[in-house]
Design brief:
4-stranded antiparallel sheet, 5% helix, disordered C terminus
Length: 750
């Protein structure tokens, strides 16, 4: 459905958008150059020094926010040379020693780059990482200390392609353009030639003095690159649909809806020699010694297919390997396939027997982070189809220590620290209960099928779990026996039930375009809706503190709603953030908003009627969710991993006053909050320097659509409350509740 909200943008708005983007890139170019020039050999250090001087002073951090660490992310590409693997890991380049395929070891990692690494290439002492915002140049002479030294700023599509040889890089931008860059000065790459195709360049391969390029809807082009500044088109072969390419010897292997084998021994007249029908789209191809390795697919369980092309006229499938996670890219060296597996990290596959390829080793990552909670020294995050546990006792060296795989996508998580149990809404796998008593070895102990709905959000209070079950409304589950949860009550909602916050005997349920529903849960078996707040757009997240509910509105920003009269909630304040407000946490007098492409927004809500911008932090990619815990801010950015910031100079959370009771039941006191301890600021290695954000309004911040929406986009947030409500003072615990996010749920959708 077309979003008419942005239809009024005309020529003037378009010009403003272009100017704004140019300014963003100018500031970003300054902010992201962080190198130790003295550590570079020869004249490279002097080049870096000059670049820094030309760029000017780095953009300052907001005084209250300090970068500490970044961890995790997706793995979309890999390059291998001399038993070293170079992988993209979220917004970093990571170098692995793969001399022992069964036990790959990390040697070093770059600092945080401007965005997720989509493609990787290596030439000489340089590695090149293509991101959606440009090509990053990384000095890798010392694999333990890769150094980010330069950037060629360019908007790159998801299906960009990259190859490097000598002092030249060949960059297909994922649209209609192949660019040749001179990187003899690696700090300042320069475009020296281009080649345009009719539609979209999506793959390329280098072979000697030739460059082979694939256009998705026009086929193969052969270019003479003996003089890189003057590319010449030699020949082509038309194909209806193509996605991937590799060249080995006299043959180009082109993937699409099947495998085409094209003889390129005469570059002026490429000819089709053979075809192999392959079910599904081929995402990436590698070839070696007459064997062709194909991977499929990006967004579902992947498959590696091995094709014997020793007879090019009759290529034949001889083996395959299925994996539970997706596959994105593959390369082959000495009958070993290295597969970038996105949320599953790196697979190393032995193909010594082509008919039976097997996984010889892997490098696991912390992928697709969304929902998170924290307690003491641990943080717990939804991570793809499972949860990951991080030790954050030393934030600058936070590390994953445990994980638990679930049958479906983990959307949200709530933690009962007293019982060491996590409650996870796992989409079509329902509510899952995980024992976390041993953080390094969590395991599932109970489950509840919530079909026909799908579990999206979860909150805890006392002996009950409250599940946002999407089209099936609110479900209330008795968890007094966590191994045998039992549904005891439910309430239909006018749209879709997603995020939930609980305070006292009231549950606050977000329903997208149908707003915030206030539900009396004093009798869990018979919940009753007692009030509703219906804004003009789509509510994403909710946090409740004292007399107020804090809501993120995807289009409008932060709404502050007075809930002192639950039957008549009224908005008292709003802070406009443009488009993209997702996850939310409230601590003390500040609201922390995961604001999509704009990163983190910090809003002072001490005067609910007049919220004030107090700071922000720019991150690569899309900020989905935020957790505030003991002076730390954990910002989950999906494919870009987790950013840990330190909160300096913000006052401890105040004690809230009791919430007035409903007229029909006894008063319920709102719990007090423990002030956050003041932490001594430290800085982790290779920090990213963000662009400070000014006041965010729809006029100031242009609409920036997500170029790569996740299959199941999620955002979650933290709510804190007292489980005992005063009647079980000996077992009172602080519960952290996380909730999911689905964009653009309209009132008329259900």
């Amino acid at each position: 459905m077309k979003n008419h909200r942005f239809a009024p943008f005309g020529a003037l708005s378009g010009l403003c958008l272009i100017v704004t983007v140019l300014l963003i890139f100018t500031v970003a170019a300054t902010a992201w150059i962080r190198v130790d020039a003295a550590s570079l050999p020869g004249g490279v250090g002097e080049q870096v020094r000059r670049t820094l001087e030309q760029a000017g002073a780095q953009a300052p951090l907001h005084p209250e926010l300090e970068f500490v660490h970044q961890i995790g992310g997706s793995t979309d590409d890999v390059a291998v040379r001399d038993q070293l693997a170079y992988i993209g890991l979220g917004p970093r380049l990571v170098i692995l020693d793969v001399s022992d395929p069964a036990n790959p070891q990390q040697l070093g990692e770059s600092e945080v780059l401007p965005y997720t690494v989509q493609r990787v290439a290596v030439a000489g002492d340089l590695a090149f990482a293509a991101t959606p915002r440009g090509l990053c140049v990384i000095h890798i002479a010392d694999p333990a200390h890769p150094l980010y030294i330069g950037t060629f700023w360019e908007i790159l599509g998801e299906d960009c392609a990259l190859a490097a040889a000598g002092d030249h890089v060949y960059l297909a931008n994922g649209y209609s353009n192949l660019q040749v860059l001179d990187v003899s000065d690696p700090v300042c790459p320069v475009e020296i030639a281009t080649f345009d195709t009719p539609e979209r360049v999506c793959s390329l391969s280098l072979q000697g003095s030739y460059v082979y390029v694939i256009d998705s809807y026009h086929g193969l082009y052969v270019l003479d690159a003996s003089d890189p500044e003057h590319l010449s088109h030699l020949g082509s072969y038309a194909l209806d649909y193509a996605t991937s390419l590799t060249v080995d010897g006299d043959y180009a292997y082109v993937g699409g809806d099947g495998l085409s084998v094209i003889n390129v021994s005469d570059p002026h007249q490429p000819t089709l020699h053979g075809f192999c029908d392959i079910f599904g789209t081929i995402e990436s191809i590698a070839a070696e010694g007459g064997l062709v390795y194909l991977v499929q697919c990006k967004y579902c369980p992947g498959r590696l297919t091995v094709v014997d092309a020793s007879d090019p006229t009759a290529p034949t499938v001889v083996g395959f390997l299925d994996t539970p996670g997706p596959m994105w890219n593959v390369i082959v060296e000495q009958r070993t396939a290295y597969i970038a597996a996105h949320s599953s990290g790196l697979y190393i596959v032995s193909a010594s027997e082509a008919s039976a390829p097997r996984v010889a080793g892997s490098y696991a990552v912390l992928p697709m982070l969304s929902a998170g909670v924290a307690h003491h020294q641990y943080a717990y995050f939804c991570s793809g189809n499972g949860i990951g546990i991080l030790d954050i006792s030393f934030p600058a060296h936070a590390r994953q220590i445990g994980s638990c795989t679930l049958p479906s996508w983990a959307f949200s998580i709530a933690l009962d620290p007293a019982a060491a149990h996590a409650y996870v809404s796992a989409y079509d796998a329902g509510l899952r209960i995980v024992d976390m008593s041993i953080p390094s070895a969590p395991y599932e102990i109970g489950r509840l099928d919530t079909r026909p709905g799908v579990a999206m959000g979860v909150a805890l209070a006392g002996h009950y779990a409250y599940v946002g079950n999407y089209t099936e409304g609110l479900r209330i589950v008795d968890i007094s026996d966590p191994k045998r949860p039992v549904e005891v009550g439910s309430l239909a909602t006018p749209a879709v039930a997603m995020n939930i916050a609980v305070q006292g005997s009231l549950a606050y349920v977000t329903t997208g375009g149908a707003g915030l529903r206030v539900v009396d849960i004093s009798d869990p078996r018979h919940p009753i809706e007692v009030g509703v707040y219906e804004p003009e757009a789509a509510i994403q997240d909710v946090a409740v503190a004292g007399h107020y509910a804090y809501l993120t509105d995807y289009f409008a920003g932060l709404d502050i709603v007075d809930i002192s009269d639950p039957a008549h909630p009224q908005r008292v304040g709003r802070y406009a953030l443009g488009t993209g407000a997702n996850g939310l946490a409230v601590c003390g007098n500040h609201a922390y908003v995961a604001n999509g492409f704009a990163g983190l927004a910090v809003i002072d809500v001490s005067d609910p009627a007049s919220p004030v911008w107090t700071g922000g932090y720019y991150t690569p990619g899309i900020a989905h969710d935020v957790v505030v815990h003991e002076g730390l801010i954990c910002l989950s950015c999906g494919e870009e991993g987790l950013f840990i910031l330190r909160l300096n100079g913000v006052e401890p959370a105040p004690t809230h006053t009791p919430t007035p009771p409903l007229p029909t039941r006894p008063a319920t006191a709102t719990p007090t909050q423990t002030p956050l301890p003041t932490a001594t600021p430290t800085r982790g290695p290779s920090p990213v320097v963000p662009t400070p954000l000014g006041k965010a309004t729809p006029e100031d911040r242009p609409y920036r659509p997500n170029p790569r929406p996740p299959v199941r986009p999620t955002v979650e947030h933290v709510v804190r409350f007292d489980a005992g409500a005063g009647t079980q003072s000996t077992t009172d615990t602080l519960l952290h509740v996380k909730k999911p996010y689905l964009p653009l749920v309209l009132k008329t959708g259900y």
